[in-house]
Amino acid sequence: MSKKEKLQDQPTPEETKAPETELTETNEPVPEEQEAPQAPEINWEEKYNAEHDTYLRLAAEFDNFRKRTTKEKDQSYGNGKADAIVKLLPIYDNLERALNQPTEDAAYKKGVEMTMTELVKIFTGLGVEIFGAPGEPFDPAIHNAVMHIEDESLGENVIAQVFQKGFRLGDKVVRFAMVQAAN
Q1: Is the pTM of this model over 0.70?
Q2: Residue 77 CB neighbour total at 10 angstroms
Q3: What is the Cα–Cα distance from 69 to 11, expressed in whole angstroms?
Q4: CA distance 92 to 107
Q5: Interior CA angle at 156 toward 154 and 177, to 5°?
Q6: SS3 per residue for 102-142
Q7: What is residue 33's DSSP assignment?
Q8: Which of 9, 25, 51, 181: disulfide with 145, CB 3.0–4.6 Å?
């Protein structure tokens, strides 16, 4: 190795010099400031869009919850009303049977008629529709055919006789009409 090469491999006096440190009042060396690591660049637009999306999803979830609870509340009221009507149906049936029985006592017959009129008025006030009369067209969605008769004087799929009237509350059938269908 030549002298020139040896000189190149040796450190220069500036490189061998110790780093300068400042002394504080306590004579402790203060380390040189190191460069702070660069914080990753934050994409504020993406962060805003993510937070906005989260907010919209939460708002939609709450709106769905509100609608669902309102619907459940309305259904529970309707179901309670339907249950109360079902409990009153035997009274209606008994009054109807009493009206169809022949009697000599006019006061008794008038009392039963008045009671039946009041019960029908209450049902109407609650939104109950009474259906199932002879001559109406037979509809299997609301009528229960327990008997069938062939009668040329009646049309096809017509109710010939009603054994029990049907009751509907809005779109909900509370009790199907029990009928005899013709043809």
Answers
A1: no
A2: 10
A3: 82
A4: 19
A5: 85
A6: CCCCHHHHHHHHHHHHHHHHHHHHCCEEEECCCCCECCCCC
A7: P
A8: 181
More confident residue, 64 or 32: 64
pLDDT, tens only, 132-147:
999 999 999 999 999 9
Do 167 and 123 touch, CB atoms closer than 8 A?
A: yes
Which residues have a Cβ under 8 Å from the Cβ of 118 and sit 6 or more positions away?
none
DSSP letters along 40-89, please? Answer: PPP-HHHHHHHHHHHHHHHHHHHHHHHHHHHHHHHHHHHHHHHHHHHHHH
Give the residue, 26 or 183, on which the prediction is more confident: 183
Query: Closest Cα to residue 96, out of 110, 116, 114?
Result: 116
